[in-house]
Design a protein that fits this description.
Chain A: Keywords: Signal. Chain A: InterPro entries: Bact_solute-bd_prot1, SBP. The complex is a heterodimer of chains A (409) and B (319). Chain A has 18 helices and ten strands. Chain A is of the alpha/beta class and 409 residues long. Chain A folds into two domains: 182 residues, Periplasmic binding protein-like II (D-Maltodextrin-Binding Protein, domain 2); 194 residues, Periplasmic binding protein-like II (D-Maltodextrin-Binding Protein, domain 2, 3-Layer(aba) Sandwich), CATH 3.40.190. In chain A, helix 2 packs antiparallel against helix 15, helix 10 packs across helix 11 and helix 11 packs across helix 17. With 319 residues, chain B is mainly alpha-helical. Chain B has a domain of 191 residues: MetI-like fold (Orthogonal Bundle). Helix content of chain B is 76%, strand content 1%. Chain B is built from 13 helices and two strands; from the N terminus they run H-E-E-H-H-H-H-H-H-H-H-H-H-H-H. A two-stranded antiparallel sheet of chain B has the order 1-2. In chain B, strand 1 and strand 2 form a beta hairpin. The longest helix of chain B has 57 residues. The chains are: A alpha/beta (409), B mainly alpha (319). Chains A and B meet through helix 3, helix 12 and helix 17 of A and loops of B.
Chain lengths: 409, 319
């Protein structure tokens, strides 16, 4: 009997020694993020019985500080998710494992399937990849079909000219016009126009800022008109969904989240609104800003192989599907980094096709050195044009000078 | 001599004996209170003294919270003092501080004089005016964000709309940023200053007013010659604490104007010294520079408080 007990205790302690635990901190402003990932973790656990998970959601506002604290104390999560800039920023400080160096096969696999614009943003200028995309957030145009029709506008505006013509018609019919929500009156909302006009923030090799190119100036002139000529609201975060619901702002641009939240928040306009990709600029491109979050492995983790294996699993079809379904259950739209899986999203066909089309033409923030510090200068240039009437070329020259200074730091 | 020396030694002994005794007595009599104070003292040293001294050290370092800090002398201070955004933040904060402190004092005193009696209605009104001070904070600032919304669902725009005035973008127009902050702070703080003035007003004896009235002093003369000088302690208190508090304002400008990329709002029109500090520390992770901003802020508050106390003392000596 004694021998049996001893054997059982020994077996238990051996299995405890073999058990591995993955602690995951997911950035998000509600507890849903942990709920979304949990079914994927359960699927993984079904095949790896000895692995246990601790999954926690960290608010956006605290995330970077908490991650820094974890790195400094070398305790905390094994895997984190965070903003697109977190990968390079934490990685260069030694906080994240260099995936392209330590796990090149995984990095190569991700490069093949993940959204290209986001991959450009999160890959350091020397090609290093510290984190891989976890999910995506992209800009879309939303419009009220009935109100546009009443104002004599046929369908969604397809070009810059169509868009301004639509805004003019709407204003003439007594409506307030168009609204921009995400990054309103700042660099983020100017970003798509810059790319649609054929401009960029920096040249391809990050050697100098090119925001002050003729294309950049054209984009800024067009963009500033929304505020100076068409009186778009300038609040930090205007309520686009309420504007659509009241019909005061029958057209506007914001992130894909409204695809999920509009049906819940504004059921009375169900069937009266649609989403479309952004109107094309002079180049014919409808480029939108794409954001989202990345996922990386902390440099101090004791289970790096397990962490990367789980991240690899999160890129598989069953895991992506499980997370999409889980998000649906909590009323959230979760877009996987694998754009080929976007067809799995639970959306009406027209909204899904608009989203998929936009995902194909979207760029993320610059990966060039000093962009984080330069964003303010670009923001200031744009706002100087809108609010102080500064000449767009002068304003962008000033921004480019700051960007170039920060490139050299 | 021997005798003298002996006497001197005895004297020294006698003088020192009671001292030793008093120290022992002190320890014996106060050991329990000292022990009870110990947890506070420990917490004070660990969570107040140490972080303050550490931030002073960090202000002279290049530190990003991950790598070890590197000593760089006064470079952080130089960079901050050469940054136009710092001066924009300082300008906004200075205007905000002086306007909000002066208005809070004036309106608080006015309310105290109007509703300072013991009548039930006055007590209820005092309670209403004091409510914002109790319920203040992030939740109330968030409610104000809705009140000030530029759209038709914004309460303020709805009200001015009744009078045919077009909607105003209160939070989206640079020239309104600091006035909006001042208005919110005055609304939030006048109940508190009102209560302080009410208690001080009650301490002023009626006989002074009666004597002045008999001497033919008008109500305004009585106010200027009796009320204002005797309210000086409250004025000093509300001004000094108001200035320090206003220079440290953070949550309101952050809630009203910050977004995911910028803390100061349009053209930094709502940037304050502490939101600038926060941006340095927690958006850019330049902890050394953020610590330097904190010490510059400390120096400003310290100097302003000294000036304030000197001016008050000078006024006292003149009178």
């Amino acid at each position: 009997m004694k021998l049996k007990t001893l054997t059982a205790v020994l077996a238990l302690s051996l299995s405890a020694a073999q058990a591995e635990k993955l602690t995951i901190w997911l950035v998000g402003d509600n507890a849903n993020m942990a709920t979304i990932v949990q079914p994927a973790a359960d699927l993984y656990k079904a095949k790896h019985k000895d692995v246990t998970f601790e999954i926690r959601t960290i608010p956006w506002s605290d995330a970077y500080t908490k991650y820094l604290a974890a790195i400094a104390s070398r305790t905390g999560p094994d895997i984190i998710t965070g903003g697109l800039s977190f990968g390079i920023s934490l990685g260069e400080q030694g906080g994240l494992i260099n995936l392209s160096q330590k796990y090149p096969a995984f990095a190569a696999q991700v490069r093949k399937v993940a959204q290209k614009g986001v991959m450009n943003s999160i890959t350091a200028t020397d090609g290093t990849l510290y984190a891989v995309p976890f999910d995506l957030t992209v800009q879309l145009m939303y419009y009220r079909t009935d109100v546009l029709q009443q104002a004599g506008i046929k369908g969604a505006p397809k070009t810059w000219a169509d868009y301004t013509k639509a805004v003019e018609k709407l204003r003439a019919s007594g409506k307030k016009g168009a609204m921009i929500q995400w990054g309103n009156a700042g660099w983020l909302s100017y970003f798509p126009y810059l790319y649609q006009a054929g401009g960029q923030l920096y040249d391809d090799k990050c050697t100098k800022a090119v925001i002050n190119s003729p294309e950049g100036v054209t984009a800024l002139r067009y963009f500033a008109d929304f505020y100076t000529k068409y009186k778009s609201p300038t609040d930090g975060w205007p309520d686009l969904e309420a504007g659509l619901a009241s019909g005061d702002y029958p057209i506007g641009i914001t992130g894909n989240w409204s695809l999920g939240s509009l049906p819940v928040a504004q059921p009375k306009i169900d069937g009266k609104w649609k989403a479309a990709k952004l109107p094309a600029g002079p180049t014919g491109k409808s480029t939108a800003f794409i954001g989202g979050s990345v996922m990386g492995v902390m440099s101090y983790t004791k289970v790096p192989d397990l962490a990367v294996d789980f991240m690899k699993f999160l890129y598989t079809g069953p895991a992506v599907k499980a997370m999409i379904n889980s998000a649906n259950k909590v009323g959230t739209l979760w877009i996987p980094a694998r754009t080929d899986m976007a067809s799995q999203l639970n959306l009406p066909a027209d909204r899904k096709s608009a989203l998929i089309a936009q995902l194909k033409d979207a760029e993320g923030p610059a990966n060039c050195k000093g962009w984080e510090e330069s964003g303010d200068a670009v923001q200031k240039a744009i706002q100087a044009v809108i609010f102080n009437g500064t000449d767009p070329k002068d304003a962008l020259d000033a921004a480019a000078a700051t960007m170039n200074r920060n490139l050299k730091k | 001599m021997k005798n003298d020396l002996g006497t001197q030694a005895q004297l020294t002994l006698e003088v020192s004996k009671p001292r030793r005794r008093s120290l022992n007595t002190l320890l014996q009599h106060h050991s329990v209170p000292m022990l009870m104070l110990l947890p506070f003292m420990l917490l004070f040293v660990v969570f107040m003294v140490y972080p303050v001294l550490k931030s002073l050290y960090l202000s002279f370092t290049d530190y990003n919270a991950v790598r070890d800090p590197t000593f760089i002398g006064i470079q952080n201070y130089r960079e901050i003092l050469a940054d136009p955004r710092f001066y924009k933040a300082l300008q906004n904060t200075t205007i905000y501080t002086f306007a909000s402190v002066i208005l809070t004092n004036i309106i608080g005193l006015g309310l105290a004089m109007a509703f300072g009696s013991q009548r039930v209605l006055d007590q209820i009104l005092r309670g209403i005016f004091f409510l914002p001070a109790v319920a203040g904070g992030i939740a109330i600032a968030t409610v104000w964000k809705w009140i000030l919304s530029s759209e038709d669902y914004g309460l303020l725009n709805t009200i001015i709309g009744w009078f045919g005035v077009e909607s105003i973008s209160w939070l989206g127009t640079p020239k309104f940023a600091v006035p909006v902050l001042i208005m919110y702070t005055v609304w939030n703080g006048l109940g508190y200053s009102m209560i302080l003035f009410v208690s001080n007003l009650r301490s002023i004896g009626n006989e002074l007013y009666e004597a002045a009235a008999i001497d033919g002093a008008s109500p305004m003369q009585r106010f200027v010659a009796i009320t204002v000088p005797l309210l000086r302690p409250t004025f000093i208190y509300t001004t000094v604490t108001g200035i320090i508090g206003a220079f440290q304002v953070f949550s309101e400008p952050y809630i009203f104007f910050a977004d995911v990329h910028n803390v100061g709002g349009i053209l930094d029109s709502g940037l304050t010294v502490v939101t600038y500090l926060f941006e340095k520390g927690f958006y850019r992770f330049q902890m050394g520079e953020a610590s330097a901003v904190a010490w510059i802020l400390f120096a400003i508050c310290f100097v302003l408080t000294l000036i304030n106390l000197r001016v008050q003392r000078a006024n006292e000596s003149v009178q």
